[in-house]
Amino acid sequence: MCRHLAYLGPEEPLGRLLKEPSHSLYRQSWEPRRQRFGTVNADGFGVGWYAEGDPVPARYRRMEPIWSDPSFADLARVVRSGALLAAVRDATEGCAAGEAAAAPFAAGRWLFSHNGAVPGWPRSVAALARSLPPAELLSLEARTDSALVWALVLNRLRAGDDGGQALTDTVLEVAAAAPDSRLNLLLTNGSTIAATAWGDTLWYLAEPGSSIVVASEPHDDDSRWQEVPDRTLLTADTTDVLLTPLKDPRDDMASSPTLGSARVGAPPSPEEPRT
């Protein structure tokens, strides 16, 4: 459910990243090529981007399909950014509709998106909801599984976790409470990207020292796109990409959540620190 994309690199017009590629996120709203669940992403969209000198991103979100919004075409033509996160939505059954339910979710310098679904929501994760401070529950933007997953991630970020650790711990916690959840999460603070592949597709295109795109699926036919294996955490900036395998809690509830990590192009090293 849904398609999303994050970018770090030289400033580009939003349209060059989201509309112009031959299989752009814009086109994926009606014609995704690799989406495993659902066929059309017409239940809203959003884009968040960073302006130079301002760590707090701007957002533009709507509840209608991205192709039906003429204002977005103008926005995408003139707004430039070196960091963004965007998503088109295919709503999970039982979740609320509306602009507030469209990713990216935001807090401070963070932008977040969830591609997937939590089966049995909301009952399956009721215990996890009770672990959150009441003020955070009352501050949920929408009555959706994605908004709750974001609240769990944000609670960890506020407690001092880095982006990769916050995503990892949240994915394993939700997967333990609601087995068969699909939890492809995407997070950026404008200088780094963290993402999980858990039940759906995830790809990246890196030009070391210049740019990185992390997306649900390739937005063009460039042969340099790399697929991220399922059950993996990706952390990246414009100079480095790190892939860390994740262990499904059903495999061994008592084991460590990670199996080791490896930088792309280097042999795996269990001792290598996460960035």
From TrEMBL:
Region named Disordered: 243-275
The protein's Enzyme Commission number: 3.5.1.118
UniProt-listed InterPro entries: EgtC (IPR017808), EgtC-like (IPR026869), EgtC_Actinobacteria (IPR032889), Gamma-glu_amide_hydrolase (IPR052373), GATase_2_dom (IPR017932), Ntn_hydrolases_N (IPR029055)
PROSITE patterns documented for this protein: GATASE_TYPE_2
Pfam family, one: GATase_4
Domain Glutamine amidotransferase type-2 intervals: 2-275
Keyword hit for Hydrolase: yes
Keywords: Glutamine amidotransferase, Hydrolase
Signal peptide segment: none
Enzyme class: hydrolase
Catalyses which reaction(s): gamma-L-glutamyl-hercynylcysteine S-oxide + H2O = S-(hercyn-2-yl)-L-cysteine S-oxide + L-glutamate
UniProt keyword Ribosomal protein present: no
Pathway: Amino-acid biosynthesis; ergothioneine biosynthesis
Its job: Catalyzes the hydrolysis of the gamma-glutamyl amide bond of hercynyl-gamma-L-glutamyl-L-cysteine sulfoxide to produce hercynylcysteine sulfoxide, a step in the biosynthesis pathway of ergothioneine.
Name this protein carries in UniProt: Gamma-glutamyl-hercynylcysteine sulfoxide hydrolase
UniProt organism field: Streptomyces cynarae
